[in-house]
């Protein structure tokens, strides 16, 4: 009973009493295999896997013959934690013979550990040793789901074909995985086709599949199709659960049908379907984004009446609404309530609170929020140094010094934006332009933030390309890596200045450090190439973009069309025009 209720302390206390005290008084109370199994399972559920292994070894040393299911409990716990090496090692350490369930758990371990090749090999061994059974189907489903999430649709389709060929049942939960995977990879047509296939087999389509379809239509802005699927469920007698209602509410909110969403919430209440926190969060988020602060407050009040506790995501949406209204009192009250409720604030939370204080010019509020960040350990992100000295200057040049943990640039600069004299702040972060080595440290804190942060500081605070370059060089002199953002900022600064050779050299250095440039970097380079009419360099940049599989946007296509037009090549231009029409119909007027 203790083990089933998840009460680890009580379970283990009773087990040790049984083993160390009661069994010595009465041999009939000696722990059996079942007793050990309950204790091992309890430890595994709470992640105490080493102790579970020790009990397993103790059981063998006491002459008890463990069942394979005892081994599987431990292996499955390592699998859930995504630790394939440990899961494989424990089988060897404990000397037990694995069964089909053990192999299935190992497939899960490799999938969660992002070792897909290892998972494929284990699945092959499972099918070769144990043939087709329910466990094999579960293992195939695990790998199938992984392929769908990773977008490996060729392998995904190949595994489905293999399952059918081997006589493994493709239905039920597998159908849900197939439909959901097609939707996640943007193939709505294939998802709908599979729903029709399920119906042709005279099988019931799982409500989960319908819910996934509604989600997909909502995200694509096809509210009518989402409503049609929902109505089909109602008319077909499909059990509409809270998840499906929530998906429909979310689709309506995403497409600005707030009245329809509120009516659907009323229908949920009439049908005794409990409104969940996800649906409320979706409504609050929609109202906040459209500036309907009064409706946000109404939803919050409804949640209180229904005793539905907000999540971190819910609080973030509420904070966003108060911040948009410039209601600092509301922001503070919500933040305090959030901390008191036990919800863990995220970086998004702190960004919004700092932004609200910065807009109000409340430096004290910024300092307190930074201190709370430091207390919760959120300041130590990426390769950021643990502390730095920020100097904020007011118009009267009086200085306030703040020593605190420095978070990511996005958070820090919202604080900086609230300070009027940004030049003084820039001097805090950036080395002065003088060439004298002795003065290079003037204006710099003893512990500089991570290299890339300094480069971003230069760019964010409006410094010119020279300032970015000096900051970049100073970072390298200190033995730090500028990182992805540092190189990106330098390339963009050179491109904006029109210094194409330096920008390309920085791109080469970036790639030599195995850092993948993002689309913004390539677009800035293409913009520089078009302005300078450097067609050959532009074509080289385009080839790199293609090799790195970076998806182009409207700006990229425009730049490429311009480059080909400069070279007098009409066929590529026409091809790109057709590509744009196919991929970006909404933007066609602006583009052409």
How does this structure look, described?
By secondary structure, this protein is mostly helical. The chain has a domain at 509-592. The protein has helices at 8-25, 33-45, 49-61, 68-80, 84-94, 100-112, 116-130, 134-150, 153-166, 173-184, 188-200, 207-220, 223-235, 242-254, 258-270, 277-289, 293-305, 312-324, 328-341, 347-359, 363-375, 409-417, 422-429, 451-460, 465-477, 483-497, 500-512, 519-532, 535-547, 554-566, 570-583, 588-591, and strands spanning 388-393, 399-404. The protein has a two-stranded antiparallel sheet with strand order 1-2. A hairpin with a 5-residue loop joins strand 1 and strand 2 (399-404). Helix 2 runs parallel beside helix 4, helix 19 runs antiparallel to helix 20 and helix 20 runs parallel beside helix 22 (409-417). The radius of gyration is 30 Å and the shape is globular.
Total helical elements: 32
**What's the total count of β strands?**
2
Question: For the CA atoms, what is the radius of gyration?
Answer: 30 Å
Structural class: mainly alpha
Low-confidence stretches: 380-463, 586-592
Average pLDDT across residues?
Answer: 76
Q: What gap, in angstroms, lies between the N and C termini?
A: 70 Å
Major sheet details = 2 strands, antiparallel
Shape: globular
**In which range does the helix fraction lie?**
55-70%
Query: In order across it, which strands form the biggest sheet?
Result: 1-2
Tell me the β content.
under 5%
């Amino acid at each position: 009973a203790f083990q089933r209720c998840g009460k680890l302390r009580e379970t283990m206390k009773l087990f040790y009493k049984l083993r160390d005290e009661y069994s010595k008084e009465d041999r009939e109370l000696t722990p059996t295999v079942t007793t050990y199994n309950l204790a091992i399972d309890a430890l595994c559920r709470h992640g105490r896997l080493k102790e579970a292994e020790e009990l397993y070894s103790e059981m063998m040393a006491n002459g008890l013959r463990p069942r394979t299911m005892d081994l599987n409990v431990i292996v499955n716990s390592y699998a859930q934690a995504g630790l394939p090496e440990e899961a494989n090692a424990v089988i060897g350490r404990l000397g037990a013979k694995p069964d089909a369930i053990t192999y299935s758990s190992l497939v899960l371990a490799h999938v969660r550990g992002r070792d897909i090749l290892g998972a494929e090999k284990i699945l092959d061994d499972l099918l070769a040793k144990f043939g087709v059974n329910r466990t094999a189907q579960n293992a195939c489903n695990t790998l199938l789901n992984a392929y769908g999430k990773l977008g490996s649709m060729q392998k995904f389709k190949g595994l489905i074909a293999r399952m059918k060929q081997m006589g493994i049942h493709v239905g039920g939960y597998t159908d849900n995985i197939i439909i959901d995977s097609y939707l996640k990879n943007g193939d709505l047509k294939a998802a709908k086709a599979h729903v029709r296939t399920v119906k042709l087999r005279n099988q019931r389509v799982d409500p989960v599949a319908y819910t996934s379809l509604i989600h997909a239509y909502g995200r694509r802005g096809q509210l009518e199709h989402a409503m049609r699927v929902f109505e089909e469920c109602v008319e077909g007698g499909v059990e509409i659960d809270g998840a499906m209602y929530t998906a429909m509410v979310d689709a309506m909110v995403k497409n600005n049908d707030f009245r329809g969403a509120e009516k659907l919430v009323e229908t949920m209440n009439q049908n005794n379907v409990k409104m969940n926190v996800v649906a409320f969060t979706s409504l609050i988020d929609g109202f906040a984004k459209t500036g309907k602060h009064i409706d946000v407050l109404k939803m919050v009040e409804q949640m209180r009446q229904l005793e539905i506790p907000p999540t971190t995501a819910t609080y973030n949406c509420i904070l966003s609404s108060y911040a948009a209204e410039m209601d600092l009192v509301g922001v503070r009250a919500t933040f305090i309530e959030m901390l008191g409720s036990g919800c863990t604030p995220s970086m998004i939370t702190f960004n919004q609170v700092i932004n609200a204080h910065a807009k109000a010019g409340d430096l004290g509020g910024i300092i307190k929020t930074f201190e709370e960040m430091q207390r919760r350990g959120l300041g130590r992100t990426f390769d950021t140094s643990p502390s730095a000295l920020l100097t904020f200057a007011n118009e009267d040049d009086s200085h306030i010094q703040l020593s605190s943990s420095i978070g990511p640039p996005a958070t820090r600069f919202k604080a900086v934006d609230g300070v009027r004299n940004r030049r003084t702040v820039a001097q805090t972060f950036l080395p002065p332009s003088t060439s004298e080595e002795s003065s290079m440290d003037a204006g710099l804190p003893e512990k500089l933030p991570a290299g890339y942060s300094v480069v971003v500081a230069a760019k964010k605070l409006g410094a010119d390309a020279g300032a970015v370059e000096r900051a970049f060089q100073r970072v390298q002199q200190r033995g730090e890596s500028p990182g992805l953002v540092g190189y990106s900022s330098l390339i963009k600064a050179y491109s904006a200045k029109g210094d194409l050779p330096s920008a390309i050299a920085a791109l080469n250095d970036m790639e030599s450090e195995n850092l993948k440039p993002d689309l913004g970097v390539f677009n800035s380079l293409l913009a520089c190439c078009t302005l300078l009419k450097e067609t050959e360099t532009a074509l080289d940049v385009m080839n790199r973009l293609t090799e790195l599989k970076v998806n182009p946007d409207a700006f990229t296509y425009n730049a490429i069309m311009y480059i080909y037009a400069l070279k007098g090549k009409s066929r590529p231009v026409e091809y790109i025009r057709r590509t744009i029409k196919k991929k970006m119909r909404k933007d066609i007027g602006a583009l052409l």
